[in-house]
Amino acid sequence: MTRAVLFDLWDTLVEFDVEASRAVQAQMAERLGRDPDEFQRAWDETRSMRETGPLAPSLTALGIDEALVQELVQIRTAGTRSQLVPRDGAIETLRELGERGILRGLISVCSEEVAAIWEESAFRGLFEVTVFSCVVGLAKPDPRIYLRAISSESSRPRRSSWGTAPTTSWPGPSAWACGRCSSTGRERRPTGRRRWSGPGRA
Ligand SMILES: [Mg+2]
Question: Each residue of 17-48: b (16+ CB within 10 Å) or e?
Fold first, then answer.
């Protein structure tokens, strides 16, 4: 019996809007007086840095003056806040799992602002464990990020959301269900072996 499910965030629980994301980068470039295409290239090159650490160093690595860093973090945060909208059925699915007593975990390859605004999102309170790559310094497919979710003492649920049936134990690795799925059914399950081309988008 499945006791727990690990979810991905982008393009699983939330649709990632590529155009909206690029518009945010263009807004940052404009604020810096830089060419948007050049800035986008530089932004892409520093992706793994912001996926496994705080945003500010990844911005200073782009040659951005420290005085502007916080302003850019705010632009980025506002853009992400507008993207952090659950797909149809996502909240209902998470609630249903909770009502069935199945633990819900999230592992997201993301940058700092996602973790910062998570508690103000519609997903607040719907996971027993959340692991953000930028916080733990690990990104998929590094197996340690999965182990962090399922076995780390710090990731054990501090409280239960079950109401009348509180959960007292966190399941071992064999209890977890991992897989690619979509609440809209538009994503297909991958078939066969696939070559890894880098971590997910930030
Ligand atoms: Mg994804």
Answer: eeeebeebbebbbeebebebeebbebbeeebe
User: Cα(87) to centroid of ligand 1, in Å?
Assistant: 13
Ligand 1 geometric centre to CA of 62 (Å): 26
Span from the CA of 159 to the centroid of ligand 1 (angstroms): 27
List pLDDT tens digits, range 74-127.
999 999 999 999 999 999 999 999 999 999 999 999 999 999 999 999 999 999
Directed axis angle between helix 18-32 and helix 66-83, to 10°? 160
CA 123 / ligand 1 centre spacing (Å):
16
- Measured over the CA atoms of residue 37, residue 41, residue 47 and residue 50, the dihedral's sign is negative
Between the CA of residue 47 and those of 9, 63, 82, 148, what are the distances in Å?
17, 15, 20, 22
Name the CATH superfamily, with its identifier, for domain 4-15+86-196: HAD superfamily/HAD-like (3.40.50.1000)
Greater model confidence, 28 or 194: 28
Q: How far is the CA of 89 from the centre of ligand 1 (A)?
A: 16
> Ligand 1 center to residue 16 CA distance, Å?
8
